[in-house]
């Protein structure tokens, strides 16, 4: 197998890890205001992802860095052509990080309320725009002979891309609700489980519509297998959420996202960014770095990737217990502007 193909597959794996793991982070943030009915409940929700959200974002940084190093032409065209939507995603992620880190710094209801809105909006924006971006890549964009994007911003807001944005938003929303039901206890768990059951049906309909459209209009025959797996996983998600089998429901929603990534990247190959005029498309060959660069990257990835996976797996194992309102102290307990550690049930690094 050529190194260009290897790195195309590795980048697909990195995006899979990011969307599966950060997907439930986004979902929890999106549900913070509508599902959390009290300060304690919102702190329960935040503490379910408190130990892992920043580690999950590393997958995005790695995917971006790998794209830059392995396929610099792809990186340049993507980030210049999709400048505005990617800037909005970046700003939303920054706002989200600030909300996570600073929410518990001041013991004031108005301050926490603003942080909660920032966290909610900072989760909704990328959840939608990632879908819009990937749908446009699958559909193809207007590139000139120099591989530069020459379409406008509003060209990216076509019906197929907007449906893609709705699909990712619903997938992450359901994924987050299932994760909350899996990781929390008490009223939050009950409401999250009930909401996941209702959301799963809507997600099934919208995701199936987008996947079939993508497969029929833009994909290749073998990716029907990914569509079939996604359909089965979505049906399983509906069944599992109705039966309140939270572990199986989480597996089903994760498999759905994995199948969606397979459909997206399978539709692209050997292109990395298809153009309306196929002669102008970026491919794994004309967008890649030299064989020497890819060879060095392969050795580095082979050594470091298992270590990163082991560390992240260990983190999830340590913080595997459920979080309940009973484990949340009544007061944030500020000490010199920093919240005291909440070590009850191994739920989080901090009480926010």
Structure description:
With 352 residues, the chain is an all-alpha fold. It has a single domain, classed as Formate dehydrogenase/DMSO reductase domain (Formate dehydrogenase/DMSO reductase fold, Up-down Bundle), CATH 1.20.1630.10. The protein has helices at 3-35, 39-49, 53-70, 72-81, 83-102, 109-139, 159-183, 187-218, 224-242, 246-268, 291-318; strands spanning 271-273, 282-283, 334-335, 338-339. The strands form two sheets. Strands 1-2 form a two-stranded antiparallel sheet. It has a two-stranded antiparallel sheet with strand order 3-4. A hairpin with a 2-residue loop joins strand 3 and strand 4. Helix 1 (3-35) packs antiparallel against helix 6 (109-139) and helix 8 runs antiparallel to helix 9 (224-242). 48% of the residues are buried. Mean pLDDT is 89; it is low at 333-352.
What keyword list fits this structure?
globular, single chain, mainly alpha, 352 residues, 4 strands, Formate dehydrogenase/DMSO reductase fold, two-stranded antiparallel ribbon
